[in-house]
User: What shape does this take?
Amino acid sequence: MALSKLSGDEQGVILGQLRNALEPRLVMYFSSANKELRALHRRMQRQLRTDYEEATALCRKVGMQNCKELRKAWAVEWNNKRLSEADLATLAKLGSVLPKLKWLDLMERFGSADPDGVSRLAEGLVTGSLPALTCLFIDGMHVGDAGASALAAALDRGALPRLQVLELIKAAIGDGGLAALAPALRRRPALERLCLIRSPFGDDGLAALVAPPPPADTRPPPAGGLKRLKVLDLRHTQITDIGCATLATARDSGALPALEELKLEGTSSSFAARAAVTRD
Assistant: This one.
C-alpha cells in the first residue's frame, strides 16, 4: 500500500514507532517523504520537542553529556542523583528506545526524592520496554506496596523480558506488596537472583513468593515458578521461624531446584531455624 493511502490511524502507528525522544530527527526524515505524514508530523512536533527536552534535562542531571550517550549505554549507574517522579517517568518513556541497556542501578543513599517515583517508573514501562535489561537494582528508593504492584503489572505487560537479577533494597515492601509482586516474579523463567534486603514483609509475603506446589494427589502445579533462582537474599526482613519452615518445605518439595545461596541474617527468625533451612 502506498504511504499516501494510509489511514490516519496507520500513519499514527508509523510515526509513533519512529518517535524517539533521544533521536528526534528520525521521524522528521521519514515524514518528509509523504504529504500526509508531513501534516501529521507537524501536529506531533510539539510533543516530540517536549519529550526531547525532558530527556536532555534528565541526561544532564545525571551527568551525561547528551542523549546520545544514554542511547548507546549498556550500563547505567545513577547513584544519589535525587531523581524525582518526573525524572523516573521520563526514564520509563525512554524504555522502548534503549535497546542496548543491560544494567540499571538506581541508588539513593539518603532516600527517595519523591516517594512515588518508582511507581511512576513502573507505570510507564510498556510492552517491550528495556528489552535487553538483565539486571535492575533499586537501592534506598521507596517502592512500597503500590510500587511493587506497579512493577508486577509492568512485568506482566512484557516489560524487562530478559530480567535475571532484581534487587530492591530498603524498598519498604510489606506483605501485601510482595504478595502482589510474587506471581509476576514466578512467571519470570530467567530470574536467577532476587534480593529484598531491609523491607518489612514477613512470613505471609514470603509464602506468596515461594509457595510449594500442591500435593501430588491434587491438581498439577501451575506453570512457571522460581526454577532458575540461584540466590535469594532476605536479610533484615520480618521473617520468623514460620517463614523458615515455609522455605524448607519449598526447598524439599523441589520448588527451588536451582537455589545455591539463601541469606536470612538479621531476620526475626531463630538461629536454629535459619540453620535448618540453609543447610546444604
Notes: The first helix runs from residue 8 to 18. Residues 8-18 have pLDDT under 50 and may be disordered.
